[in-house]
Structure formats: structure tokens, C-alpha cells
Amino acid sequence: MIEIKPVRDVAVILLYNKYGEFLLGRRKEGKFAAGYYELPGGKREDGESLLQTVKRETLEEIGYTLNRPQLIYECHVDYSIGQIPLHVFAEELEAENLSEAVKARSSDYNRPNFPANEAAELIWVTGHKALSLKLLPIMRAMLDLTPFRRLLPNIGPVDLSVDKDVHI
Length: 168
Description:
Elements: E1 10-16, E2 21-26, E3 37-38, E4 41-43, H1 50-62, E5 70-79, E6 82-92, H2 100-105, E7 121-126, H3 127-130, H4 137-143, H5 146-151
Domain Nudix hydrolase: 6-150
Enzyme class: hydrolase
InterPro entries: MutT-like (IPR047127), NUDIX_hydrolase-like_dom_sf (IPR015797), NUDIX_hydrolase_CS (IPR020084), NUDIX_hydrolase_dom (IPR000086)
């Protein structure tokens, strides 16, 4: 049975690298929207700023310490569990910010092998490759927006009709 918690602000990170790729996580089975790919992040805790949330969640989920994440997009997302306020931050990966544990797991520090602490898997993808994955509908829609296209120049055309019958 899927546990549904009260609706809270969600802050996520578009962590991108020098290859024009960004990090996506696939939600674990048994969780809300299981199997869908999304940006790493999570719910704001009481008393936290959105910046504190995205930094904490990124550290918890992938073991990476954000340096200077910038807020690039905000919206409200309609789901079957309610309307979720979503705040998207972006930062380019800095290899010098990798922990020793992540460095030990990685052969390329510009495409590190992060631990999937809360996701079923983490993958580095180009915008074009992401469009072939089972994305949360909001994720596909965001890839068609200017702030994302500016940071990920290789997205190509986005077909939003792919998600017209998806109801999460």
C-alpha cells in the first residue's frame, strides 16, 4: 500500500555536467509514481527555506553537496494526491565538490556514479535521451521551457502529447 503524506513544497535540483547531461532518478516500487524518472530532491521540512531543502535533499539522496544552486523555475503540479508546489534549482556539477566515497565509485568525476540512496537508480542523460524515458509529465513539460533549454542545449523537440493520457 502506498503511504500518502500531507502536501508540502518540493525542491529539486537540475544537476548538469560539462557533457550537457543531467541527473535523473527513477522512483522506487511501492512509492507514489513508482517507475517514473524525476530530478533528485524532496519535500521541505518545517522551518526550512527552499534553498536549505534542496541542499539537504541533494546530500541525502545522492551524497553531493551543492555549492550555489540557482532557482530557475517554479510551478504547481496537479497530482491525484493534490496540488504540489514545485521549485527547481540548477547547478553545474563541480568535480571538486564530490565526496571521497563518490570519487571512489567513479571513473569520470564529471559523470560521477552517485549512490541511489532514495531512488531505484540514478542516470546521467542528455535532454534528447531523457525524452525517451518514462518521465513524470511535469518533467517532460519542463524540458520544453527556456530555462531548461538554456542549460541543456541538446533537448530537441518535445512531444507533450506523449503524456496526454497519463494520470498520476
